[in-house]
Design brief:
Pathway: Protein modification; protein lipoylation via exogenous pathway; protein N(6)-(lipoyl)lysine from lipoate: step 1/2; Protein modification; protein lipoylation via exogenous pathway; protein N(6)-(lipoyl)lysine from lipoate: step 2/2. The chain is α+β, with helices and mostly antiparallel strands. The protein is 35% helix and 26% strand. The chain folds into 2 domains: 2-236, Bira Bifunctional Protein, Domain 2 (BirA Bifunctional Protein, domain 2, 2-Layer Sandwich), CATH 3.30.930; 245-325, 2-Layer Sandwich (Enolase-like, domain 1). The strands form 3 sheets. An 8-stranded mixed beta sheet has the order 7-8-9-10-6-2-1-11, sandwiched between helices. A 3-stranded mixed beta sheet has the order 4-3-5, covered by helices on one side. α1 packs across α9 and α11 packs across α13. It is globular and about 65 Å long.
Length: 326
């Protein structure tokens, strides 16, 4: 496995490099990319930017907002956060457990009893220390996540604006009450740079990895194109249009909001938003619903043409019908 460390702390640039490494045909096999962000919120591909953040707080504290390609929820990053992306060929086993097992083993080697938890998290001492998401592009899969090492929890809790339904369904009072910093749980404290170096050393010695340099010059032209995409208002805010009706519901597979426009019992427009863990871009299938009748038979006919697991995560056909039709 190759390990690459991105030098930039801009989310627009790290997202671009992740994409470039993933689509580079000369880079085969498994890859681990490590990176950090300075004061940023990264929202999931399916989320409405306006609903996920405290806009006034984000503006006043000059927090950068970015949208990633994977599903899942919004996360706050600062330089006390270490992020990782596993890039691999698709296989019969693309589970989160498969990709996170080496990370969990590394954390355990530091004396931190950690474990896989829920749909896509790592927990330690009953608290979340890592959230993860995935997306598929061609024959490759990206499974990326956070490691909350020494993040400013005050900013994290004030900058994000999660839907109350999500917390109420889990009996949780706030973001801050369910997350923890790894450094506070370690038997011996260290800096985030020491933590990163220790992780690299562990993977080199235990996971047959080699540390290599990103081919920055090779990527220069395409990099500018991708950086412009990820930093554009259209990419960041395009899930935030106005519609005639909105419905939100929490399912085991995640929070889902449907924004739609219905005229004369015909679906004129529809967007699916939320933190459900899609692996492919939901925008690809939304047009299939446009122009059909607003009834169960028509909606189910469309759903038979869709790979529900890749586009809606663990949501079921019945749950999707329910959120669309009420």
């Amino acid at each position: 496995m190759k390990i690459y460390i991105v030098k930039s702390t801009s989310p627009y640039e790290t997202l671009a490099y992740e994409n470039l490494i993933m689509e580079d045909p000369s880079i085969t096999g498994d890859v681990l990319v490590l990176y950090q962000h300075a004061n940023a919120i990264i929202i999931g591909n399916n989320q409405n930017a306006y609903e996920e953040i405290n806009r006034e707080y984000v503006r006043d504290h000059k927090i950068v907002l970015a949208r990633r390609k994977s599903g899942g929820g919004a996360v706050y990053h600062d330089l006390g956060n270490l992020n990782f992306s596993f890039i691999s060929d698709k296989s019969d086993d693309n589970s989160y457990v498969k990709f996170l097992r080496p990370i969990i083993n590394f954390l355990n080697s530091l004396g931190l009893e950690s474990e896989f938890h829920g749909r896509n998290d790592i927990h330690a001492n009953g608290c979340k220390i890592s959230g993860n998401a995935q997306y598929i592009s061609g024959k490759r899969i990206v499974s990326h996540g956070t490691l909350l090492f020494d993040v400013d929890m005050t900013i994290l809790s004030k900058a994000l604006n999660p839907n109350k339904i999500k917390f109420e369904s889990k009996g949780i009072k706030s973001i801050r009450s369910r997350v923890a910093n790894i450094n506070d749980l370690l038997p011996k404290k260290m800096t985030v740079d020491e933590f990163k170096d220790t992780l690299v050393k562990y993977f080199v010695e235990n996971e047959n990895c080699t540390l290599e340099e990103i081919p920055y010059e090779k990527y220069a032209e395409r990099f500018e194109e991708l950086r412009s995409l990820f930093s554009s208002e259209k990419w960041i805010y395009d899930r935030s249009a106005n519609f005639t009706y909105t419905k939100t519901e929490k399912f085991p597979g995640g929070l889902v909001t449907v924004y739609g426009t219905i005229e004369n019992s015909i679906i004129k427009d529809i967007i699916f938003a939320g933190d459900f863990l899609s692996k492919k871009d939901i925008r690809d299938v939304e047009p299939l619903f446009k122009g059909i009748r607003y009834d169960e038979k028509s909606v189910r006919e469309v759903l038979t043409k869709i790979d529900i697991e890749n586009y809606f995560g663990t949501l079921t056909e019945d749950e999707i019908v329910k959120i669309i039709l009420g």
